[in-house]
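In this supplementary section we document a worked example of the pipeline. Step one takes a protein sequence of length 323 as its only input; no multiple sequence alignment statistics are reported here. Step two produces a three-dimensional model, which step three serialises into structure tokens for compact storage. The input and output of this example are shown verbatim.
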Amino acid sequence: MNQGYGNYIFSINILRAIALFDRTNTYTAYTFCRQSPFQNKTLFYKKLLPKFGFMKLRVSFEEYIHKKDIFLAIDQALPHLTKAKIIAFSHGLSFIHYPNLYKSDFTRLKNQLDDYLKKSYIIVTTSTKVKDDLYQYYPNLKNRVFTILPGIPYDFESHEVRKRKKYLLFVGMNHPVKNVERLVKLFLEFKKQKPFFGYQLFLVGEFQAFALQDIRIFPKISRQKLKLLYQEASVYISMSHYESFNFPILEALSQNCTVVALESAVIPEMQPYINVCKTEKDCLEALYKISSKNHKNQNFNNLDSLFSWEKYVNRLRTLYNEL
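The serialised model returned by step three reads:
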């Protein structure tokens, strides 16, 4: 999917925000890919090769030669060796809650989690939901976990008002934790009602297995096309078993798209902007109500104030003093 998944969206946006809002500290971003355009006098990119053993070996070597004060483990990956104090960014514990859905990845993810919890001075989460989960499973963390809400992705800060069309929208990876099979069944039930015969379901991601009549699959689309889909969708729907933040919901809200979601798919901080449902039946009733002609749009006031990258960077800078 060209627009990238949540971790990528978070990483690319926080780097841009750091370049924009922290003019005091100097940052080095390690990469083995092409350089990012978000660099200035305080943020620059250092391309390290070889790609093999990048984080454990190549970055460790670089950290040993050129000592840094702080290492930001943005993507939850740590070098084997660094003299810097580590701030790790935790993006959720869905694999802990649903190990049966992560059979091939559970051990790797659990080892990664144990590694960054052990080595980090501070852990930053994307919601109070993840913070509470960490304290529940790892009570010895004491006061090392802090929540900072990410901002609206920079390419979704503006929106155009367009006529809403008769389709429901979901964006994400094809993973069992996203509960897309149940979402498809809910959509088929929704269409049984005569007023909603003409509706379609748009799935953005690698969902070829769900290609049925009235279900359109978009495996690879640009961010510009995705933005248009949000602007014209009747409803964005999410039925994930677990979400630590859910960037697609924030993207939908930023484009004034009404959202229906199971409670498990929504962080507490987003709930005031969303039609939150406890059961699948509740989701179905919400879809009926929202898709009716008499439905009034939600209030999206103050969304950009709550989810602000400038606030994110300012809060992150205060944490440096905790080290």
